[in-house]
Amino acid sequence: MTATDPPAGEITLGARRNRYLLDRERVLGPALMAPAIVYLLLVVAYPLVLAFVYAFSDVTTGSQSLHFTGFKTFIAAVDDPVFLTTLRNTFVITATSQVLVVVLSTVLAFVLTAKFRGRWFVRFLILMPWTTPVALSAVIWLWMLDSIFSPFDWFAQLLGVVPPGGHVVFLGQSGLAMGSVIALQTWRILPLATVILMAGLSAIPADISDAAEVDGAGFWRRLFGITLPLLSPVITVALLFGIVFTFTDMAVVYILTGGGPGNATQVLSSWAFYKGINGGNLGVGAADALIMFPVLLGLAAIMLRMASRAEVS
Amino acid sequence: MAVVETRSLRKKFGATPAVDGIDLVTGEGEYLVLLGPSGCGKTTLLRLIAGLEQPSEGDILIGGQVVTRLPPRARQIAMVFQSYALYPHKTVSANISFPLAAAGVPREQRPEMVRWAASRLGIDHLLDRRPRQLSGGERQRVALARALVREPQVFLLDEPLSNLDAKLRSSARDELKEFQQRVGVTTIYVTHDQVEAMGLGDRIAVLNEGRIQQIGTPDEIYHQPANTFVATFVGSPPMNLLTRDGKLLGFRPEEFLPVAAAGERPGQVTFDFAVTRVENLGSDRYVYGHLPDVDAEAKVIAKLPSTVATPVTVGDRVPFAVNGADLRYFDQKSGARAAAGNATVTP
């Protein structure tokens, strides 16, 4: 080898360096995250920013002009007499359905983790609502609750609640319509909560319930003294998911009742849609929707905190 | 205090019997150890006695009462689990008082009983902590205090030392023995560790494949094994077994010593030991090899204490001797203890 020869070793090493580019975490990490970040920016961040811009402006679907109006749009949105009704409905529907979900999913999780014949089939049936798109299941329920063809009428007639041949107008009376929306939301979220709770239940070591049994605890003491307290972090997670899904959902109300009768079942998200899209008042619609924002922000913060706590312990 | 008795107890999981016809009677206040390899049915037997499993056949009696169909809480037993199974969401104090609450002890009496149990195990200062803030040894004591607090008739312990590191284990073993002697409650202790069994048990029941192989004092188990399973499962290294005239000849490694060290004793039997390997463990030397004159196939181990300084070199044939009275004979087919018959080795 003479002094003018290229340093052969270094050349091959340099060539290899690029081959191992993806082995470097500083390269691989961002490369893997990029698609998700682009997706979130386009589908979540951009519309969110747009909503903020709209909510502080006088934009409508009819005009291209956009003037900054400060909080005027918000004041207009809140000033609407229907707004308070939608706010109350949103909270009532979310709270009632999620209380029902927590109670029912806990019971279901216990039943479905017990061993019995045909367990897989029952599990499959319970999970079905979760696999059905919201819009589709809402249409099915629309028929189930129809004022003329409802199968519930048959039971009502059998039980003598309505005279033979009579009908219950489920979606035409404000109380029953609210009940129907709550029932559908409960039915829709129940499978997810049940699955989360089943996972939580099976994570409780068998030794601990055995120990409680040997320590003399009967069924109720084991349930309320040991199992439920140990399950409570998981219940909280299921509850937070349920609240977010119900609080932001507009499909159920939109398809089932259209917010009616009157605005008796109108919720924030459906109201925002009617105002902003159907009514053409984009600014007010955006303001209506953004009023949910602090609530969701708070929920997200709690969820993130719980997730990080679960990582630590 | 109570006597625990099982009568032809059987438990099948599917087609396989985990516990296969066990008759067992403990003494009053006795420390009985169930010893066996994993999968021998010892934990299942303990869970049957606790009432956590239902037997397929047979009966369980505690203090003379048939409790076979009674739930665990009606049996007045306390159990310490391998994982300790402390309630993670409760403080140490709440853990210990849980059985009291379940037994309906009035609320105002509980703190004093908790303090009493805690002080017996030296964990008074931990009462406000939660289980995850405790070390393994402390958790074990909390589990024991929880078992002790309502003064059960019977203690059931399921490998309570196996989650501790080796150093802690021997001191915890001491404490366990001392603790049981103080409280004097009938205790059934499950372990796969023969050292624990020998050290703790008043009697040991050796289990294999769901059956009791032998039940007796540690001394009986060690020196008079009922069959080859017990002979080889208990003792480390296990008993040497050689075929001779249709019988199995057995002797313990530490009974097999160089003639040069032991000297000529009356009644001792001498063999030529072909040495293939020597392991020096500090306190002992393990000498591996075989006896070409008896059974050239079988491997033989001799355990020489460090006080025996006789030089032993690999490749040598060294005269080793065992006391004739220390030789045991087993049936070659069944493995059961047998009379020497023709196989007798004479000095």
Overview of this protein structure:
The complex is a heterodimer of chains A (313) and B (347). With 313 residues, chain A is mainly alpha-helical. Chain A has helices at residues 8-19, 25-55, 72-79, 81-113, 119-131, 134-144, 151-159, 174-203, 206-214, 219-248, 251-256, 268-278, 282-290, 293-312. Chain A has one domain (72-312): MetI-like fold, CATH 1.10.3720. Chain A contains 14 helices and no strands. In chain A, helix 8 (174-203) packs across helix 10 and helix 9 (206-214) runs antiparallel to helix 10. The model of chain A has no long low-confidence stretch (mean pLDDT 82). In chain B, helix 2 packs parallel to helix 4 (136-148). Chain B starts with a strand and ends in a 16-residue tail after the last strand. Chain B has 347 residues and is an alpha+beta fold.
What is the compact description of this entry?
Chain A is mostly helical and 313 residues long.
**Could you tell me the strand content of chain B as a percent range?**
25-35%
CATH topology of chain A: MetI-like fold
- Overall geometric form of chain A: globular
Query: What is the fourth-level CATH superfamily of chain A?
Result: MetI-like
Helix content of chain B: 10-25%
Tally of helical segments of chain B: 9
Structural class by secondary-structure content of chain A: mainly alpha
Number of E-state strands of chain B: 18
Query: For the largest beta sheet of chain B, what order do the strands appear in spatially?
Result: 6-7-8-3-9-10
Strand content of chain A: under 5%
- Which architecture name of chain A does CATH use? Orthogonal Bundle
The arrangement of helices and strands of chain B along the chain is EEEHEEEHHHEHEHEEHHEEEHEEEEE
Query: In this structure, how is the largest beta sheet of chain A organized?
Result: none
Topology, number of strands of chain A? 0
Q: Indicate the radius of gyration of chain B in whole angstroms.
A: 24 Å
Which parts of chain A are unreliable, with pLDDT below 50 for 5 consecutive residues or more?
Answer: none
Average predicted confidence as pLDDT of chain A? 82
Report the span from N to C terminus of chain B: 51 Å
State the fourth-level CATH superfamily of the largest domain in chain B.
P-loop containing nucleotide triphosphate hydrolases
